[in-house]
Design brief:
about 150 residues, 10 strands, alpha+beta, 3 helices, Beta-clip-like, single chain, 3-stranded antiparallel β-sheet
Amino acid sequence: MRFMGKALVTVDKVKKDQLIVEMFNPRTCTHTEFERMVKRFRWPADCGIYLSNSRVCIETHFSNLQKPHWYRMNHSATPTAYACRRGNTIQWYAVRDLRAGMEVTWDYGSPDASWALATEVETALILDDMCNVKLCKKTQKVLRSLR
């Protein structure tokens, strides 16, 4: 993959259903939590994937200095890639065979609630690690048991 302007473009041929790019270690949080992280870390407001259940999927290691490849994909109503959550990653695959030099796009409206597998504890872990948020004693106890 390479960048053409701000877009993600294929370097070589890509076969249908071939993995193109992935988001590592995705987590979900509420819109309010996401907005707080955007402000605190000065992330772009579009660095999260909005889900259908009022939650936002984020990459916990998002960096303004070196934006991940998935962030460079533009929206299209006729995308060249589709997204799937697989274990602890979100992966984008080719919709059809792509020739070298084609832009990789996806339909921003395609994520569904199945991506939001995070529990309240998982979200609390993110906020605890990233924001030093004060957590209730019950949540702190659960977090200690997980570490």
